[in-house]
Write a structure and sequence with these properties.
By secondary structure, the chain is an alpha/beta fold. 27% of the residues lie in helices and 23% in strands. The chain has six helices and nine strands. It has helices at residues 14-25, 90-102, 126-134, 193-202, 211-233, 260-263; strands spanning 3-4, 41-50, 55-64, 70-79, 110-113, 138-142, 160-165, 168-174, 183-189. A nine-stranded mixed β-sheet has the order 1-4-3-2-5-6-9-8-7, sandwiched between helices. Strand 7 (160-165) and strand 8 (168-174) form a beta hairpin. The longest helix has 23 residues, at 211-233. The two termini are 28 Å apart.
């Protein structure tokens, strides 16, 4: 099993990580609309952890944006590259996520993260960080609003309200199914907020969460299960291979009192 290494010079302390955020935040591109919804390719990325084995598994699943059929997929397994600190989770996830993206046999197109972009205390969450590092258009779709305020959207699918930090709109609460709890959409890089919402609705024809997130979540859980089994058995595994079938598996929980999708920033 190939384990992704921590990049040279990767931040080791909170102070170093925040300095990197401050440096990269100014590179976020907010004046591009991004690709039209329902066209080209769209890729979901997600991660799962086994903290006991110090492993993180990332998955990237490419869909045809028009049909939502799977075009390609890849996984990568690495060591957890940063301690758990709210607001700095991108530093735990990005090495494995970028490795999975690099293993894809085709360009990823638009990338959808299970997390946040501008909807972040420092306005630089995972979706923004990944976008700046890769140059790709990226948006974030989170399950929870973290610390931001919002009014309930209209109950019908497609309703939305601003996600607010004071009076600043940092994202939108979007109803993807009639009468079901909204998801929380924010811009990452090279895509407008309105377009990010439109992409989210195009990716949720049947379920609350985007198909990109659902498929990447299942695949990273499978990759983690296989990698953990290989580590425990002391034998070669398939944790870094591309093309594994996206079957849902249980994964290790995040640190007590947290939800990775609340804090995936």
């Amino acid at each position: 099993m190939t384990i992704v290494g921590v990049p040279a010079g990767w931040p080791a302390t909170e102070e170093e990580a925040r300095a990197v955020q401050d440096d990269l935040r100014g590179r976020v591109v907010l004046d591009e609309p991004g690709p039209p919804p329902g066209t080209g390719l769209v890729t979901g990325v997600d991660v799962a952890y086994d903290d006991g084995l110090d492993l993180v598994a990332a998955a990237a699943v490419v869909l045809d944006a028009a049909t939502l059929d799977v075009v390609a997929q890849a996984t990568a397994v690495g060591r957890v590259s940063f301690p758990y600190v709210p607001g700095l989770l991108a530093f735990r996830e990005i090495p494995a996520v970028t490795a999975a993206l690099e293993r894809l046999p085709c360009p990823p197109g638009l990338v959808v993260c299970d997390g946040y972009g501008l909807a972040h205390p420092r306005r630089f969450g995972l979706a923004s960080h990944l976008g700046v590092l890769t140059g790709l258009p990226v948006l974030g779709v989170a399950k929870n609003p973290f610390t931001f305020a919002y009014d309930e959207p209209a109950p019908a699918r497609g309703g939305w309200t601003p996600l607010l930090a004071g009076t600043e709109e940092v994202g939108r609460a979007v109803r993807t199914r009639d009468g079901v709890k909204p998801v929380f959409v924010s811009v990452g890089h090279r895509v407008s907020l309105g377009n990010a919402v439109a992409h989210t609705l195009a990716l949720t024809p049947a379920y609350r969460l985007p198909e990109t997130t659902r498929r990447a979540d299942a695949l990273c859980r499978q990759a983690l299960r296989e990698a953990a089994g290989s580590c425990r058995a002391g034998r070669p595994g398939r944790g870094g291979e591309a093309g594994a079938a996206p079957t849902a598996r249980p994964s290790a929980p995040p640190p007590p009192g947290t939800d990775r999708t609340d804090e995936s920033m």
